[in-house]
Amino acid sequence: MMQPFFSVLVPVYNVKQYLDECVESLVGQSFPDYEVVLVDDGSTDGSGELCDAWRDRFPGQIRVFHQQNQGVTLTRARLFREAHGCYLVSADADDVLHTDALRILHDYISRYHADMVIFRASKNRNFSSSIREVPFRDGELLSIASSEELRRLFGATFELNALWMKAFRRELVSADTDYSSLCHIFEGEDLMFSLAAADQAERIVFCDRILYYYRENPVSITNTYKPKLFRSIRDVLRIQRSYAEKWDPTGELAKECDRNALRKFYDVIVGISLSGLPGNKKWALLREVVEDGDFLRCYAFRGTLEERKPRLTLLLAKNGWFAPLYLYGRLKRLGREMKK
Fold first, then answer.
1. d(Cα 106, Cα 328) in Å, to the nearest integer?
2. For the chain, where are the alpha helices, taking DSSP H only?
3. pLDDT band of 218, cuts 50, 70, 90
4. Whole-angstrom distance between the N-terminal and C-terminal Cα of the chain?
5. Is the model's pLDDT at 228 over the cut of 70?
6. Which residues, in sequence order, are bridge partners of residue 169?
7. How far apart are CA 288 and CA 293, in angstroms?
8. In sequence order, what are the residues at sequence separation of 6 or more whose Cβ sits closer than 8 angstroms to the Cβ of residue 79?
9. pLDDT mean over 201-210
């Protein structure tokens, strides 16, 4: 079997209602030289059986692997190991890839001899209206070494975190890396892998085309909270900061990373406050955040936040005044219940 040009990598976990639409967009690509790799991470809703049905329909193009539930980080790592393609493209199982996406990406890779292509995505099913504006020109060649703006976007923000907005050379991520110590990370893992790939890429090109439909998840950090979320976000931010320090010895990029990380910690505090967890559990989780060394370092940038609400929330949390946060959460939850 000849090596395909692309491997399209899809982690699958309990997404049966969306999986058909996703896979249909993959098998319908106008560019022929690719494989689709599906890793079912112990789904319980029939997603695994649906993966097998698609493989049976396209046995030469779709490869399926099943595993006991290991979480998204180890599933991503498994996808990298199983991929045969020269370049990797990622798709979440509830999203859709544009029919011409692989053809366009192949054109940019060939034309610019690119190690990585960064492209646009949309929250609209008709691929209109980009999710975010990236300050690069179409066809602009970049690298971490040559572009201060690229270093900033990767090293201090979350604008370029998503794996699904990139195609990159397979060698940019090590399939042999042991991610077992990071298996607890279930939020922000895309950024972790994207940083490693960008750090190794010598030629990154921007493609000013919307090639991906991102289905917005109605479940967010501020209306559902998992007790291990803080540790997941904190450890990804630590990894991001380590790259910021590597790319900018002056320390300025690391400071900007800390300023943006503080907003993530604010989201965590609000998420805990709005959660339906019992009061004593909320107290314990809030204390875990505000006593953490990474939070305390980032808290020094509270005064740089323009909005009053985040500044006040962070002040209350930092000083252990959790009662107002608890009351705020109760009132917000009560308001939501009354609207139902």
1. 51
2. 16-27, 47-57, 72-82, 101-112, 148-156, 189-200, 229-247, 252-274, 279-290, 293-299, 308-318, 322-339
3. low
4. 56
5. yes
6. 87
7. 10
8. 9, 10, 11, 37, 39, 90
9. 98
